């Protein structure tokens, strides 16, 4: 899959081909529809988190995400393939952030859009 990556920090982001992750026990795999670049991601790219968190290169920045569950790992409850979800990557290391089209192991919540209101509803 194509993803925005950092080959080193400090460094500049590049688009690269990376392996699609598989959900492990207790994890969900999310096809990301939207992600963000926030202060944490900028600090990572600038190299400010070296020595604070483990880095697994190439890094894929992006902690926040929204998308659809693609697969669930063993023991996952409360999520099913096709669920709309949003959340924050909560791993103890930096590596596969949500800037990739697919995401795994995150603190995510199911998204339930409000009922539509208006004419004919």
Summarize the structure in words.
With 121 residues, this protein is mostly beta strands. About 6% of the residues have low confidence. The chain contains 1 helix and 9 strands; from the N terminus they run E-E-E-H-E-E-E-E-E-E.
Write the layout of secondary structure elements.
Blueprint: E1 2-5, E2 14-17, E3 28-35, H1 39-46, E4 54-60, E5 64-72, E6 84-89, E7 93-96, E8 102-104, E9 106-110
Parallel strand pairs: 4-7
Antiparallel strand pairs: 1-2, 3-5, 3-8, 5-6, 6-9
Summarize the structure.
With 121 residues, the chain is mainly beta.
Quickly list its features:
121 residues, mainly beta, two-stranded antiparallel ribbon, 7% helix, globular
Query: Mean of residue pLDDT?
Result: 81
- Approximately what portion of the residues adopt beta-strand conformation? 35-45%
The order of strands across the largest sheet is 8-3-5-6-9
User: What oligomeric state do these chains adopt?
Assistant: single chain
Rough outline: globular
